[in-house]
Specification:
Elements lengths: L1 E5 L6 H10 L3 E6 L12 E4 L5 H7 L7 E4 L5 H11 L6 E4 L13 E2 L11 H20 L3 E6 L1 E3 L14 H7 L4 E4 L5 E2 L1 E3 H9 L11 E4 L5 E2 H12 L5 E4 L1 H10 L4 H10 L4 E2 L2 H6 L9 H13 L9 H15 L1
Parallel strand pairs: 1-2, 1-4, 2-3, 4-5, 5-7, 6-15, 7-12, 8-11, 9-14
Antiparallel strand pairs: 10-13
Helix pairs in contact: 1-6, 3-4, 7-11, 8-9, 8-12
Length: 333
């Protein structure tokens, strides 16, 4: 099976690429630079910018794929481009959407693929919804062979905090320096963390799956944790005692707005301030052997060890520190 990944070296896509290669898939990775990573030696890299249509058409001239996966599409215009580019040239097109597109706040606590898509707080989520609408219109009207996948909070080479880190090491460094960190609300809302290697198990099972065309899926762990438990696991992985301050999401967003960090409103009110419990029945029905096996306590330990193994990965984002310090100072006053 010949498969093309558009973007294949990121936090989620690297694990998916490695698992695809282990299954003897003929994998091509289209990216702007040949970012070879361990475990991807069997992939064929195509150097091109997906946003440069002339360059991409030249690089893919004459190539037909069983599956095309776009990990890095965020706005409707990018999907309109892909529909034109790959119509008739692939047997399945998989779009990586986002579970943040699901209804906020939820009218029912259990999230299924039929949960409404509406997010009044986050433009990122609304753009993903609009992308899905472009693809489903193409499927209904012209038979474009789309499958939609909605990851939730998925991690391996990132620190999956609600406040304080993502690709950087700021939050763990802060914990190790004995500084306070912020947990939104009282820390008892429920959340789901999914390790990228677990996500990849379900995802690779959808590649070339004819029955999945026209369908949408989320792929998450079945482990449900409170945010208190999540931050406690992070502190344990860092080898320190947690020093947490609980602050309401509204207050956090108000201070962030004043610092031109309006994205925090979508990040919290449009996503992480809400409980998220996912029903994975559908992905298990289409991929019967899918099961997530890496608990967050173990997964975050591996992630911190991955950062610690290479000093070049230890990047401290002072903007994150400044934001946390400003919120804490405003709260204490």
């Amino acid at each position: 099976m010949r498969v093309l990944f558009i973007g294949g070296t990121g936090n989620i896509s690297t694990a998916c690429a490695r698992m695809a290669l282990s299954g003897k898939i003929d994998l091509y990775i289209l990216s702007r630079g040949n970012q070879q990573k361990p475990g991807l030696e069997g992939a064929s890299f195509i150097t091109a910018d997906i946003n440069n249509l002339t360059q991409v058409k030249s690089s893919l001239d004459g190539m037909v794929f069983d599956v095309v996966v776009n990990f890095i599409a965020y706005i409707p215009e990018e999907l309109e481009r892909d529909v034109q580019l790959f119509s008739g040239l692939c047997g399945q097109y998989i779009f990586i959407s986002s579970a943040s597109a699901y209804q906020k706040p939820l009218s029912h606590p259990i999230i299924t693929e039929s949960t409404p898509l509406v997010n009044p707080y986050w433009d990122y989520s609304r753009d993903k919804i609009a992308c899905e609408e472009v693809l489903m219109k193409a499927y209904r009207e012209n038979g474009f062979p789309v499958t939609i996948v909605r990851p939730s909070h998925t991690y391996e080479t990132v620190i999956p905090a609600a406040i304080g880190s993502w690709e950087d090491f700021t939050l763990i460094d802060r914990m190790r320096r004995g500084k306070e960190v912020i947990i939104h609300g009282d820390g008892t809302s429920l959340w789901t963390m999914t390790h990228s290697r677990d996500f990849a198990k379900g995802f690779v099972g959808l590649l070339g799956n004819q029955q999945a065309i026209g369908h949408s899926f989320h792929i998450t762990s079945d482990e449900v944790l409170t945010w208190n438990q999540i931050y406690e696991a992070m502190a344990e992985a860092a080898g320190v005692r947690l020093k947490a301050v609980h602050i309401s999401s509204d207050f956090i967003c108000r201070i962030a707005d004043g610092m031109d960090q309006e994205w925090m409103r979508g990040n919290l009110l449009g996503d992480k301030a809400n409980s998220a419990i996912f029903d994975n029945t559908k992905i298990k029905r289409f991929v019967p052997d899918y099961v997530a096996t890496i608990p967050f306590r173990e997964g975050i330990r591996r992630t911190v060890e991955w950062f610690d193994a290479n000093p070049d990965r230890i990047r401290i984002d002072e903007a994150n520190n400044s934001l946390m310090d400003a919120i804490l100072a405003a709260y204490s006053s």
